[in-house]
Amino acid sequence: MVRWEKSVKGEFVRWQSAFRNWVTVDGRAGPSGEGGFAAEAGRYHLYVSYACPWAHRTLIYRKLKGLEDIISVSVVHPLMPEESWVFGDYPCATADEVNGASKLIEVYQITNPDFTGVVTVPVLWDKQRHTIVNNESSEIIRMFNNAFDAWGNKEVDFYPEALREQIDEINLTIYDTINNGVYRAGFATTQSAYEEAFDLLFAMLDKLEQRLSQQRYLLGDTLTEADWRLFPTLVRFDAVYHGHFKCNRQQLKEYPNLWAYVRDLYQHPGIAETVNMDHIKYHYYASHAGINPTGIVPKGPEIDFNQPHQRNTFTTGEES
């Protein structure tokens, strides 16, 4: 049985991604793995879940970089059984039209027949070499950011050289306390582990609330990778993490600046169609029997991400 999470001394410990090759402009090796994966239109395929915040990052980049006709996609069923993600009949889910798999583990085992590790999304697949390129979301979005600029929107750069050090620094802090922090709270199996994650999570949310009272985005007036890495967690917060993961000191909508910030990002052209709240809620509440044994999916809350946000007053002086 393939497990997708584990805990040590009651603390949630995230798995390490198993496939770390890179698509590059000319096929040379990237920061890790081997070479031979040159950027080409139609060569690569993306396996995702609308429910998963890590996969959500890659859908955002695929949309904003104009790669939808360049990189095909398959969407797994939102309900995840013990053996991990599967394909099945559900609104907005798809079949695996590339490999014909019924379970995502089958795709992993095409690459490595002896694979017994953790089956995760996203997965970037090479149709030409018939293998997984990479299953680490933070690396896939950087490939999408510049490797496919011959076909996509090269005017958009979410990892500009002048801001890379700042982006890397804030990414690390937000990942530890928020992106992974909600999971550390939700899957903790001891009170002390839960409370430690809870306190770190809300301490960081408090800091970001103050930061965003002074500027539109995490690094000022420039929309960067750091914002798009944070957004998938925030957009799920009130619907899932607040209740299901017991991150309930307060809802995101009780943070005026963070709540306006997430609406600002949601209303960015193309982003709303990457958010599928039905898949998100159904996956979390129905898949995690250890947390929600009944599998009942709550009807609420009603969240209007289209409310005016007025965040552009930081840069334009105009109301949205």
Describe, in plain words, how this protein is organized in 3D.
With 320 residues, this protein is an alpha+beta fold. The protein folds into two domains: 6-146, Glutaredoxin; 161-314, Glutathione S-transferase Yfyf (Class Pi), Chain A, domain 2. Helices cover 35% and strands 7% of the residues. It has nine helices and six strands. The protein has helices spanning 53-64, 104-111, 137-146, 164-179, 181-186, 191-211, 225-241, 256-266, 277-287; strands at residues 6-8, 11-13, 44-48, 72-75, 123-126, 131-134. The strands form two sheets. It has a four-stranded mixed β-sheet with strand order 4-3-5-6, sandwiched between helices. Strand 3, helix 1 and strand 4 form a beta-alpha-beta unit. Helix 4 runs parallel beside helix 7. The longest helix has 21 residues, at 191-211. The protein is globular, with a radius of gyration of 19 Å. The model is unreliable at 316-320 (pLDDT under 50).
Question: Can you give keywords for this protein?
Answer:
alpha+beta; 2 domains; four-stranded mixed sheet; two-stranded antiparallel ribbon; 6 strands; 35% helix; disordered C terminus
